[in-house]
Structure formats: structure tokens, C-alpha cells
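Figure 6 in text form: structure in, sequence out.
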């Protein structure tokens, strides 16, 4: 019996996460109740508490799930594409958000506003963002290697800049979908940024200046 319960648990967690995203997006992060989530998932409160201690713990798990989903998809696109097409494939994916991503944007935006007001929530969000940036840095290293280029900027800061562009552009596109279709700013500016903050890997490193010598 224990093995059967263990096998069911990941499926139960997945259904709770899917239901929570729908409920949070429709009713608001803090207006939604555990009862709402259980009803949406078709579970009892007992099923909820056997997987998550609190609604906040569920939300953190939702953050982690989305970050892993996003990174895994982008890594697969980079690995599957020809070197010259890798960036375009990722940008095409980011330029076509589905209903899941729309809901996630609503929920994550609400939590970000809450985190600005609440120090404990800010620490949770900062840790999540740090882990996501670490994964983005690894992806950027792979992209630059595939392109035969060497980054000239700090990759953590470059990851921050790319996230800021992506999130800001996405917000504008949800508000003005006709004037600014999803992905237009991504496709227009991100390739140029990657090129501007890198150099061909074959370029020789400049020699350091020698003490006591003038040009």
C-alpha cells in the first residue's frame, strides 16, 4: 500500500499545482483559499495537507515548477537547433505564450508586488530568482559556445537584464496586444544584446599592460 501511495503522490502534487495556478490567476493569490484549490483539483483537504503544509508552501512549489519547466524547454530548444538558429528558436517559444504562461504572469506579478511590501516574501522571491538566474547563466554559456562567441559581460547581470526585458515586454504586450504583439521586443533587441556583449571566441585576449612601460 505504501508503494501505491508513493506512486500516486507526484500525480496528486501535479494536479494540485495545476489547480492552484488556475485558482490563483482567477481569484487572486491571497483571495484564493485551500478549499478553492482542493475543489478545483477534485481532492479533499486531507490530500492537500499530505503534500503541502500551507498555501505559501504550495506557491513556492509552483514557482519552482514553472522555473524548471521554462529552463528545460529552452535547453531542449538550444540542444535541438542548429547553432545559428538556437537563439531564434528560444525567442520564438517566448514570443508565443499559452494560457498557462498568461496565468503564471498574473500570479507571479501579484506575488512580486506583495514581495516589495513584505521582507519575508522578498527573501523567498530573491532565492527563487537566484536559482533561476543560475540556470539561465548555464544556458547562456551553452548559447555563446554554440555561437562561437565569448561573453564580455558578467553573465549573472546579463541574465538579470534579459529577464527584465522579457518580463517588461510581456506586460506591455498583455496590455497592448495589437500595438505590441508578443515577442516583438524579444526578437528585435535580444539578439543584438547578445552580440553586443560578446566577441568571437577566436579573438585573442589582449595582453596586459607591462608595469613601467609606455606605448
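Output sequence:
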Amino acid at each position: 500500500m505504501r508503494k501505491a501511495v508513493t506512486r500516486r503522490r507526484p500525480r496528486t502534487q501535479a494536479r494540485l499545482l495545476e489547480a492552484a495556478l488556475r485558482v490563483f490567476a482567477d481569484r487572486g493569490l491571497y483571495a484564493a483559499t485551500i478549499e478553492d484549490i482542493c475543489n478545483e483539483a477534485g481532492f479533499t483537504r486531507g490530500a492537500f495537507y499530505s503534500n503541502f503544509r500551507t498555501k505559501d508552501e504550495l506557491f513556492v512549489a509552483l514557482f519552482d515548477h514553472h522555473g524548471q519547466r521554462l529552463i528545460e524547454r529552452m535547453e531542449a530548444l538550444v540542444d535541438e537547433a542548429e547553432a545559428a538558429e538556437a537563439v531564434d528558436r528560444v525567442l520564438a517559444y517566448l514570443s508565443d505564450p499559452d494560457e498557462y504562461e498568461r496565468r503564471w504572469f498574473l500570479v507571479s506579478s501579484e506575488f512580486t508586488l506583495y514581495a516589495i511590501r513584505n521582507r519575508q516574501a522578498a527573501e523567498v522571491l530573491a532565492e527563487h530568482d537566484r536559482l533561476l538566474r543560475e540556470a539561465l547563466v548555464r544556458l547562456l554559456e551553452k548559447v555563446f559556445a554554440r555561437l562561437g562567441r565569448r561573453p564580455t559581460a558578467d553573465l549573472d547581470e546579463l541574465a538579470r537584464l534579459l529577464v527584465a526585458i522579457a518580463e517588461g515586454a510581456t506586460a506591455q504586450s498583455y496590455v497592448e496586444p495589437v500595438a505590441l504583439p508578443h515577442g516583438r521586443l524579444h526578437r528585435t533587441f535580444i539578439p543584438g544584446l547578445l552580440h553586443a556583449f560578446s566577441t568571437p571566441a577566436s579573438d585573442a585576449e589582449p595582453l596586459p599592460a607591462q608595469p613601467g612601460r609606455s606605448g
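Caption detail: DSSP finds nine helices and two strands in the chain.
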